[in-house]
Design a protein that fits this description.
Blueprint: E1 3-9, H1 11-14, H2 34-41, E2 45-51, H3 70-81, E3 86-90, H4 104-119, E4 131-136, H5 153-157, H6 160-170, E5 175-177, H7 196-211
Parallel strand pairs: 1-2, 1-3, 3-4, 4-5
Helix pairs in contact: 2-7, 3-4, 4-6
Amino acid sequence: MTRTLLCFGDSNTHGTMPMHDLGAIGRYSRQHRWTTLLQEALPSWEVIAEGHPGRTTLHDDPIEGAHRNGRRMLPAVLETHRPLDAVLLMLGTNDLKQRFSVNAGDIALSLEGLVRDIRASGAGPMGGAPQILVVAPPPITETGCLAEIFAGGAAKSLQLADRIGTMARRNGLPFLDAGQIVRVSPVDGIHYDAPANPALARAFATTIAEQFS
């Protein structure tokens, strides 16, 4: 029986390539994205890629638009794809933008709000709750065309794995620190170079097989 996994994330779930210039947005071809590679590694699952560039945990972006608010969009996404057996939740990088003025602890608490929403959604099998894998994004660097937008975010990002991991344990959820698997590209300090895709897919596949057997 096929099970369904929703990957709810931002540009690094969408497959956005490192950017040399603002507005020069490229996307890895479908066969090279980690979500596609994850599908290949998990033949008994249907993997749904739901990555939106610029998506925050729960902030309306005053520049890029209120539709970047993950918590605002999550209910519709869950209802669209239900029943869902599991949700891979990887957000927090865009919350590091200077315009939001939040710290790593705030980001972890924001993700906890999404966890509560998923558990209360009734989007799992038979109207239950989907299982959840919480993933902390890797630390960012302030470099290239995105450096000014993320000014001050690099130092905060070093604390994300600790804060998000604590939140996951508090909620009895499996946790994965993507910073132990991949690093951001030196081109823009936010997005991943091509070799990160198979590395993430392997790590996610192993964790999902272990946690959601």
